[in-house]
Specification:
The protein has 548 residues and is mostly beta strands. Helix content is 15%, strand content 40%. The strands form 8 sheets. Strands 20, 23, 25, 26, 27, 28, 32 and 33 form an 8-stranded antiparallel β-sheet that branches.
Length: 548
């Protein structure tokens, strides 16, 4: 067919929508273009780079070049696009060259799709977002990079879960008084109403029981770190063990690892704790793990951090019946022991926060630095109060609270990684009463070494069994704002003061007989002061502890 003005050659408006005819190209819509590009990528996989962006660029360049040559041919050169077509083909060639050894990559990709394509399509749960082979945990789920947790950490917020009138075990009772009516004399008649609230995220598990939760493994490989969260016990806490079990196909739990008693190693305060197993426990994708905290023996049960679950009946054949369970026992289970599913108690809806993760650091543990400037106006919850009397923060300074005589001691709830560490602080308004910095303390704070400061002396002291013993001291004028520190290196204890930017030794003590506390169970640090006869000891403007 010839164009109406006889300027274009026959065939330019031909009716056959195929080949390099203008009619053929004009009939191509966007969907067909995309299909053509995809088809070309698949058909010429070896020749076209594996990189998707490059592959698409090659296809589009070649399609555009075809279009240019077709228009040029249709117009007989009246619209000459041959030069543009050549440039496009050069770009397509460059894109191919940039792919490198595409033949090898194509062969590998083809074999992967051929051998495992159906399997991957059927097991989408194995698709992972990974770093070094490990799934990445978002912060709302867990703070540790590769931790698999029983519940998302973001759910650990304080809120009222339930309310009942009257009293109920595990609930906090509140009573309010109101005017019920007025008598004949117009006088109010009062009545009282009690209601109770279940607050989360804290719950108290039963004594002499393993309380735990189920975790489904999201990657193949070993786990070595177990995480759990406890609140402060209402009294002297009982023994606490961490337990990891493998859930068998029957629903029974085979115990794989049991920790030692953690109570001598952790402070009596709300905190997150991690225990390192001596060797990796290997689990496969989809396996279920049971992680729990077993509290038993004399003493108070520590509340656990977790959430209650909504009551939801499940079929009798479903296992596990709930996301958490307890197992009553006066002693922790032994490695290799099997807990029958029928012996597990699923009646409680409380799910404790527990987690498993891979050990991401190899070699020696990192040296830690902990710092608190008290700028928020409160004593952080990470500091455990170890005495009956409290301190508080006034004007950004840790000071005595209240008018009662006695001592105030606080420990940071996370231990240091090394026996050798030092503690530093800036003393404010020193008096004749003591203020101190503590190190090498046990988690119960019943034994430690301290730097004690008054307005005219700095000393190194030992505290043991409720008694202070002066080990070494030196008289010196101490000013408000002086920065002091105590270093413990081996059996050498050194008290120093910073003067004009330099650290100056004040007193030294050498523990020649090795009687002062040291070792894994004595790596806690803290601070404190006292009030005696209406006089408060000095305050602390900041506090810092660091491994040496």
């Amino acid at each position: 067919m010839t164009s109406p003005d006889h300027q274009l050659p026959d065939g330019a408006y031909g009716p056959v929508p195929q080949g390099n005819s203008l009619a053929g190209l004009s009939s191509v819509n966007q969907r067909q273009i995309e299909e053509r590009v995809r088809a070309q990528v698949v058909r010429s996989f070896v020749a076209i780079p594996v990189n998707l962006a490059t592959a698409v660029r090659v296809g589009l360049h070649e399609f555009a070049a075809d279009f240019c040559e077709a228009v040029t041919g249709f117009t007989g050169g009246l619209v000459n696009l041959q030069g543009w077509a050549g440039v496009l083909r050069e770009k397509a060639a460059e894109a191919r060259a940039s792919a490198g050894d595409s033949q090898r990559v194509a062969d590998l990709a083809e074999r992967l799709v051929t051998e495992s394509g159906d399997g991957l399509a059927a097991t989408n749960s194995r698709v992972q977002v990974v770093i070094d082979g490990l799934p990445i945990s978002p912060y709302w789920a867990a703070m540790n990079l590769a931790e698999e947790s029983s519940i998302p950490r973001a759910l650990l917020t304080r809120k009222a879960w339930d309310l009942v009138y009257g009293t109920k075990a595990g609930y906090t009772a509140y009573t309010y008084t109101y005017v019920a009516y007025y008598d004949s004399n117009g006088l109010p008649v009062y009545s009282a109403q009690t209601f109770s609230v279940r607050w989360t995220p804290v719950h108290t598990p039963p004594a002499n029981a393993l309380a735990g939760a189920y975790i489904r493994a999201r990657f193949d490989g070993g786990r070595q770190i177990v995480t759990y969260m406890v609140d402060a016990a209402p009294g002297d806490p009982c023994a606490l063990y961490v337990v990891v079990g493998r859930v068998l196909e029957s629903g029974d739990i085979r115990i794989e690892w049991v920790s030692g008693d953690q109570t001598p190693l952790i402070t009596n305060s709300r905190f997150e704790h991690s225990v390192e197993m001596p060797v990796d426990l290997v689990f496969e994708v989809g396996e279920s793990v049971f992680v729990g905290v077993h509290q038993c023996g004399p003493g108070a049960v520590r509340p656990l951090l977790g959430i209650p679950a909504t009551e939801l009946p499940r079929p009798a054949t479903a296992q596990p019946a709930r996301a958490a369970a307890t197992f009553p026992a006066a002693t922790p289970p032994a490695v290799g022991e099997t807990l029958a599913e029928t012996a597990l108690d699923f009646s409680s809806g409380d799910i404790p926060y527990v987690g498993l993760s891979k050990k991401l650091l190899s070699g020696d543990p990192p040296k830690l630095i902990r710092y608190e400037g008290f700028d928020r106006g409160v004593i952080p919850t990470a500091f455990a109060r170890m005495t009956a009397l409290p301190a508080w923060v006034a004007g950004g300074v840790f000071v005595v609270s209240g008018g009662s005589d006695g001592i105030r001691r606080y420990l940071y709830a996370k231990s240091m990684n090394y026996d050798d560490h030092m503690v530093t602080g800036r003393v404010i308004d020193p008096t004749v009463r003591h203020a101190w910095l503590m190190l090498r303390s046990g988690p119960d704070n019943r034994e430690f070494v301290s730097l004690n400061v008054v307005q005219n002396a700095i000393g190194i002291y030992r505290f043991s069994g409720g008694t202070w013993t002066q080990l070494s001291a030196g008289e010196t004028t101490v000013n408000s704002g002086d920065v002091l520190r105590l270093r413990a290196t081996g059996n050498v204890y050194l008290a120093q003061r910073r003067i004009a930017g330099d650290w100056v030794d004040v007193v030294t003590y050498i523990d020649a007989d090795g009687i002062l506390p040291s070792g894994r169970a004595h790596r806690y640090a803290g601070l404190g002061n006292e009030r005696v006869s209406w006089v408060n000891g000095g305050g602390w403007d900041f506090w810092k502890v660091e491994d040496l």
